Amino acid sequence: MKLTFLGTGTSTGVPQMRCSCTVCTSADPRDRRLRCSALVQVDDATPAILIDCGPDFREQLLRQGCPDLMCGLLTHSHYDHVGGVDDLRPYAYAAENAHFPLCCSPDVARDLQARVPYCFTEHPYPGVPQFDLVEVMPGDVFSVGTDAAGRPIEVEALDIMHGQLPILGYRIGPLGYITDASVVPGETVERLRGIDTLVINALRLTSHPSHQNLTEALSVIEMIQPRRAYLTHLSHQMGLHAEVDPTLPQGVSIAFDGEQVFIPNNSQDER
Q1: Domain presence at residue 73
Q2: Is residue 160 part of a domain?
Q3: Is 271 inside a domain boundary?
Q4: Which parts of the chain have pLDDT scores under 50?
Q5: Are the C-beta atoms of 107 and 77 separated by less than 8 Å?
Q6: For position 40, which CATH number holds?
Q7: How far apart are CA 271 and CA 261, in angstroms?
Q8: Given this model, what pLDDT does residue 122 score?
Q9: Are strands 152-162 and 48-51 parallel, antiparallel or unpaired?
Q10: Which domain holds residue 67?
């Protein structure tokens, strides 16, 4: 399995506009962060799964050579996570009846239909993207396709709290992906305990009402005990990558845009 970080930044991205702090003016490419998104490819011959589709999606996919996509998993409907859905049109071209599956909670499905109603009309305008909205709830285990050997690719939707907003995290076999969490409920911790690779948000060093800070993210990692963990959805207030990353516990790293992680393909039945 290959995980590619398309973006590792918070809603403003890094550098943040009109900011001249040391992070926003850093020459280190690891300090330049597009909005948070990722690709997961279970094997070399299978199209990738997209996690979230923010306003930087077009640039992110061009950087990766526009790989084939199987479906999208949406965590919630905030703009920095769904603002790029219209740019999915090469994967969801109405004229070819190629409806692109977007898996999401029912409230996200309603929000998308309100935000881009032209994508869901009975007689769509030529060229608009067309989507199949697949509604899922926390605890659901669902198949998004098959791998190169014909085995189902199963995804588990996870319960996450983003401030007062319930959102979704996802488990795909040996990978757990959580973003925008302020609280990771105990049941979700149990569903991920001992997983190989965990991706989890850590906004900054100080507290925030709707996102984990670094200390809180490390506490969740300690409870889940993954083999390794990657921090994502960072703001410029986290500090310089080169200074903060070496201070993290063994097995924990700050992710950066374009980073690729290879994960052993453990049985997806191991939960």
Answers
A1: yes
A2: yes
A3: no
A4: 267-271
A5: yes
A6: 3.60.15.10
A7: 21
A8: 87
A9: unpaired
A10: 2-262
Q: What is the pLDDT of residue 94?
A: 53
Q: What is the mean pLDDT of the chain?
A: 95
At 266 the pLDDT is: 64
- Examine residue 269 and state whether it is found in any structural domain, yes or no: no
Output the pLDDT for position 97: 55
Alpha helix positions (H), the chain = 57-63, 79-82, 106-115, 186-192, 214-224, 241-244
List of residues 6+ apart from 107 with CB closer than 8 A: 77
Q: Is the peptide bond before 117 cis (omega within 30 degrees of 0)?
A: no
Residues 253 and 238: their CA atoms lie apart, in Å, by 13
Interacting residues of 95 by C-beta distance below 8 A, sequence separation 6+: 126, 127
Count of the separate structural domains present in the chain: 1
Q: What is the pLDDT of residues 111-137, one digit of tens each?
A: 999 999 999 998 888 889 999 999 999
pTM for this model (two decimals): 0.96
Spatial separation of the C-alpha atoms in residues 155 and 169, rounded to whole Å: 10
Q: Per 3-state DSSP, what percentage of the chain is helix, strand, and coil (rounded to 5)?
A: 25, 30, 45
